[in-house]
Amino acid sequence: MGFNNKVAAIVSGSVLAMAISSAATAEESGPSFSANVGVVSDYRFRGISQSDENPAVQAGVDVDLGNGVYLGTWASQVDFAYGMDETKYEQDFYAGYAGETAGGVGYDVGYIFYAYHGGSSDEDYQEVYGSLSFGDASVGFAYSDDYWDETGAFYYLSAGYSFALPNDIALDLSAGLNLFDEDDKFFADTDSYVDYSVSVSKDFSGLALSASLIGTDLSDTECWDSEWCAPSIVAGASYSW
């Protein structure tokens, strides 16, 4: 999923923000390792800035066991503008199973734990996720029993489509519906919102460059009186090996 390397089923607005792996075909082979490092002009997750609209350095390591099972970790700088005692970075730990049916339908199911370091708040949370892909289209679902900063149950429904443009340029479209059990915990005035992303990217033998329009349908007032949820152009660069 994009430069933030999160699992595709979670379809982050950054691109996707956006994902570790997209329901890849599982093949019987030996374990393989991969790693990535990158930078984005603004770390956006599900449409909302996680870095106070500033650049963030990100990196991850993945292990593919060769039988459909994968696991890994990924980290990014964050800035929630708390002041002196605030979270400095996010680290995700995930594991899942991905494959493809005989009919060509890709699937991906797994678990991810989000850990936040450097601050005094209990922001850690967990999610289970799943996705299906049909050619260039995908749909996904994620669920947390207690979302970020202990804000209660959370549900995420997502959809995406990828286009192959000339000169090996990829155009990726994604949208997600964010649903909260209560409207007085995460946001004061709403219990749901929509995030979206339109991204173009190109890979140069491991070096991937992208530009994305990322946003939500939330107003600045609904978004903690900030522009963290407003539409923004996000540039990214990452290298994988």
Task: Tell me what you see in this structure.
The chain is mostly beta strands and 241 residues long. The chain has strands at residues 32-40, 44-45, 48-49, 56-64, 69-77, 89-100, 105-117, 125-134, 137-144, 154-165, 169-180, 192-204, 207-216, 232-240. A hairpin with a 2-residue loop joins strand 2 and strand 3. The model is unreliable at 1-5 and 11-27 (pLDDT under 50).
Topology of this protein?
Blueprint: E1 32-40, E2 44-45, E3 48-49, E4 56-64, E5 69-77, E6 89-100, E7 105-117, E8 125-134, E9 137-144, E10 154-165, E11 169-180, E12 192-204, E13 207-216, E14 232-240
Antiparallel strand pairs: 1-4, 1-14, 2-3, 4-5, 5-6, 6-7, 7-8, 8-9, 9-10, 10-11, 11-12, 12-13, 13-14
Shape category: globular
The radius of gyration over CA amounts to: 17 Å
Biggest sheet, in brief?
12 strands, antiparallel, barrel
Order of helices and strands: EEEEEEEEEEEEEE
Helix vs. strand class: mainly beta
DSSP E strands, number = 14
In oligomeric terms, what are we looking at?
single chain
CA(first)-CA(last) distance: 16 Å
Tags for this entry?
twelve-stranded antiparallel beta barrel, mainly beta, 54% strand, two-stranded antiparallel sheet, 241 residues
